[in-house]
Amino acid sequence: MLNHTNNNPAAIREILGRYVINPTHQRCEIARVMLSKPQHLSAEQVLSLVNANSPHVSKATVYNTLNLFVEKGLIRQVIVDPTKIFYDSNTSSHYHFYNEDTGELSDFKLNDINLTPFPTLPENTVQSGVDVIVRVKNSG
Amino acid sequence: MLNHTNNNPAAIREILGRYVINPTHQRCEIARVMLSKPQHLSAEQVLSLVNANSPHVSKATVYNTLNLFVEKGLIRQVIVDPTKIFYDSNTSSHYHFYNEDTGELSDFKLNDINLTPFPTLPENTVQSGVDVIVRVKNSG
DNA sequence: CTGCTTGCAAAGGCTTTGCAGAACA
DNA sequence: TGTTCTGCAAAGCCTTTGCAAGCAG
Lengths: 140, 140
What we know:
26% strand, globular, homodimer, Arc Repressor Mutant, subunit A, alpha+beta, 30% helix, DNA-binding
C-alpha cells in the first residue's frame, strides 16, 4: 500500500484516521515526514527532519510514534543493519538493496520473482511477511 | 560451505587454518561450539555454551572472535531481529524462517527459488549476498 | 474531569573499545 | 623479546520505559 501525500494536513489526518491512529500534532508531523514520498528513514533521521524548522517533537515521541505506525500497519520496519532500524513508508510488496558501504537502502520489484510454492512453514506457524535483501558493496 | 566437525581438536584447528585464523585456545573453543552442527546462535548463547563446563572465555573475546570468524568467512551473521545478531555456522546458500513469537530461526532451501535474472544493481555496486527471510508467527 | 499523549531523563540491552597483563613464537 | 591475544571494566549506541505534566474531548 502506498500512502503518500503532499503535506496536505487534511490528507494526513485522513490517512491516520484510516489506520485508526489518533491524529495528534506530533503524529501528524511525523506522518508528514514519513509519507512525503516512498523512503527509508531511521528514527534519528525522522527526528531531525521533523524538527528541522523548529524543534517541537521529542526523541521518545518519535520512537513511540514510529512503533505505533508500524503496529497499525501504516509503515514497515526494515531490518538490515544490526545498529539501527529503518522505517519504510512503502508497505506494498517489494524488496530491498542494502549498500553495506554507505548504509543506503533502495527498493526493487521483481515481476519474475517467485517464492511460491513456499517451503513448508514450521509447524503451527503462519506466514507474516517475506523479506528479500540483496546486499551490495561499492565496486569502486 | 559446511564446516562442521565432531569436536575433534585437530579437525577444528585444520578448519581455522583453512580460513587463516590463528587457532588460539579460546578460538578453538568457540569454533567447537559454533561448528558442532548447523545452527544459529546469539553471542550470548555462544558465551554460555563455551563456558558451560568451566568458565574460561570472556564476553569480549566471544564478541571479538565471532566478528573475526565472520570477517574471515567461517560463519555468517543473520540479521532478523533488531535486538541481537545471530551467527550461522552454515555459510552455504540457504534462507531463513524467523519465528517472531519465539525468536527461533530455521533454515530452508528452495530448489525452485529463482532470483535470477536479478534486478539491475544500483550503480557502481557489486552484489555481496542475498538474504531471504520468511517471517512467521505462531498460529495457536 | 478523565483518559490519552508528550517529554525528560534514566534505564536497558547488545556490542565495542581501551588498556594492561598474559600467552605464544 | 616482540607480536598477538585475552579479559575486565567502561563506554557507546540505539531504543524503551517511568513518571509527571500537558492536552483534548
